[in-house]
Amino acid sequence: MFPKHTLTNVFQAPRRGIYSFSFHVVKVYNRQTIQVNLMHNEYPIISAFAGDQDVTREAASNGVLLHLEREDRLYLKLERGNLMGGWKYSTFSGFLVFPL
């Protein structure tokens, strides 16, 4: 289980280990490009882009394995564009693969 999942949607690692994270973001009825970053302690680790101008819905997804220390923080940041409907069509998930 992930403790300290707050209203700001920040994951804080409960222990040192290897973690798997993935995210899936959908832009709806939006003709602009979006860029979403997975942030690790204020630094971008990976990004996903959606920028097709001729569709009403488009998804941007990515995933990563990370070595985290106890209390490292991860969250999604919308770097470019905007999400009509906010984050309600999006997911962010992760799990501990191997404790260290």
Keywords:
Tumour_necrosis_fac-like_dom, single chain, mainly beta, Cerebellin_Synaptic_Org, 100 residues, signal, Cerebellin 2a precursor, C1q_dom, four-stranded antiparallel sheet
What does this structure look like?
This is Cerebellin 2a precursor. Keywords: Secreted, Signal. Residues 1-100 form the C1q domain. Its main location: secreted. It comes from Cyprinus carpio carpio. The structure is a single chain. β3 and β4 form a beta hairpin. The protein has strands at residues 11-12, 17-28, 34-40, 43-50, 57-68, 73-80, 91-99. The radius of gyration is 14 Å and the shape is elongated. With 100 residues, the protein is an all-beta fold. Helix content is 0%, strand content 58%. The strands form 2 sheets. Strands 1-6-3-4 form a 4-stranded antiparallel sheet, with no helix packed on it. A 3-stranded antiparallel sheet has the order 5-2-7, with no helix packed on it. It has no helices and 7 strands.
